[in-house]
Structures are given as structure tokens and as C-alpha cells.
């Protein structure tokens, strides 16, 4: 990590940190007082988004081929990479072995899209930052379906997420969707209890 002055806050992010087993302890060894932000979204939609990303890179396997067991095509495979990322309760327990819950802010990915100013108010408070970023810093891009960020509230052209975000998701067989929802339901309920937040994912 870069050296920071007492007046600075250094931020680093990577989705793979959350699911990689050795990471919580390694971060704790670096700094036991670090504050952590975890952004989560409906794991079913997360899996579909992951699949959409793969299709954009030229992969040809269908979502069904990626998430269902080869030995039992009617069952979701918990060892499938895009499935197990969404087992939030399993991963989060590992983080609680290294950090107190008070050092981790859980951020709703859905809220980050629909009400980014509210989320940023929570983030700034959690990080003990002056609450500067508010609704004046955001512009909702109807085409992408995501908010764009202005570097200052008077900026004419906001900075929007790149082309890898806001892609149209492919149609998914409703039966596969329902199987994914049933699969994730108990894991979601465990996660709600761990973080004391009910996200009401279907």
C-alpha cells in the first residue's frame, strides 16, 4: 500500500479479496484497524452479470452449462465459480474471524445504483470523512442504468462507468432463475443474520 499522511485516506479495492481464503488474515497482518467496505448485490443477478461479462469476452458456454452439475443437470453446482462467489455467508464468516463487525460496512449494490448519494453519505461517515459528496455529484445515465459521478457538482460532463458496465443481460430460462433463487435462499438468510440487514433478495 502507498504511504499516506495523517490527513489522507488510502483506498484499495478488488472483488477477489472477499472470496480468497487467505486474504482476511493477510490484511489483518498489514493493519488490524483497517476499515472495510463490502458491496453486495442479489447473488442471482450477480451470477447473471458475471455470465454476461464472460459472453462479452467471447466465451460460448451457456449459463445453464456453467451453473448446473454435470452429474445432475437438475441441480445447481455449489462448486461452480460464478455460483460460489454468491455464497456471501460462507465468505463473510471468514472475515469475522479476523475483524470485528464494527470495522466492516455492508453496502447494498442495488442502493448504490438507485440512491448513490445516500450510500456515499454512509460511506463518508463510516470512514470519518467530511460529508462532501452528495446528490449534486451524481447524474443518472438512463441508457446504462447506472449513476455517473461528477468530480465536482458543477462539472458539465460526468464520469460514467466504462463499456463493461450496464450491458444488457441475456434472457435466462425462468426455470433456471427459479432454481438459482431456491439454491441461494438459505445462504441469503444466513447472510442477513450475520450482517443484521435484510436485503429482501428474491
UniProtKB/TrEMBL annotation:
Q: Which SUPFAM superfamilies does the protein's record reference?
A: P-loop containing nucleoside triphosphate hydrolases
**What keywords would UniProt list here?**
Disulfide bond, Glycoprotein, Transferase
Task: List residues binding 3'-phosphoadenylyl sulfate.
Answer: 41, 49, 165-169
What S-S linkages are listed for this chain? 148-160
Q: Name one Pfam family in it.
A: Sulfotransfer_1
Reading the lineage from the top rank, the first entry is Eukaryota
- What is the protein name for this chain? Sulfotransferase domain-containing protein
Amino acid at each position: 500500500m502507498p504511504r499516506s499522511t495523517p490527513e489522507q485516506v488510502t483506498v484499495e479495492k478488488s472483488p477477489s479479496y472477499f472470496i480468497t481464503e487467505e486474504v482476511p488474515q493477510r490484511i489483518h497482518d498489514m493493519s488490524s484497524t483497517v476499515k472495510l467496505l463490502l458491496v453486495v448485490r442479489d447473488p442471482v443477478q450477480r451470477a447473471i452479470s458475471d455470465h454476461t461479462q464472460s459472453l462479452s469476452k467471447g466465451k460460448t458456454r451457456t449459463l445453464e452449462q456453467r451453473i448446473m452439475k454435470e452429474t445432475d443437470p437438475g441441480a445447481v453446482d455449489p462448486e461452480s465459480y460464478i455460483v460460489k462467489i454468491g455464497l456471501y455467508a460462507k465468505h463473510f464468516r471468514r472475515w469475522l474471524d479476523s475483524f470485528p463487525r464494527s470495522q466492516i460496512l455492508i453496502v447494498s449494490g442495488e442502493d448504490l445504483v438507485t440512491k448513490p448519494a445516500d450510500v456515499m453519505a454512509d460511506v463518508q461517515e463510516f470512514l470519518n470523512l467530511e460529508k462532501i459528496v452528495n446528490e449534486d455529484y451524481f447524474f443518472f445515465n438512463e441508457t446504462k442504468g447506472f449513476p455517473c459521478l461528477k468530480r465536482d457538482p458543477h462539472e458539465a460532463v460526468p464520469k460514467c462507468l466504462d463499456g463493461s458496465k450496464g450491458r444488457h443481460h441475456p434472457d435466462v430460462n425462468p426455470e433456471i432463475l427459479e432454481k438459482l433463487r431456491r439454491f441461494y435462499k438459505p445462504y441469503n438468510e444466513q447472510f442477513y443474520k450475520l450482517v443484521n440487514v435484510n436485503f429482501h433478495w428474491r
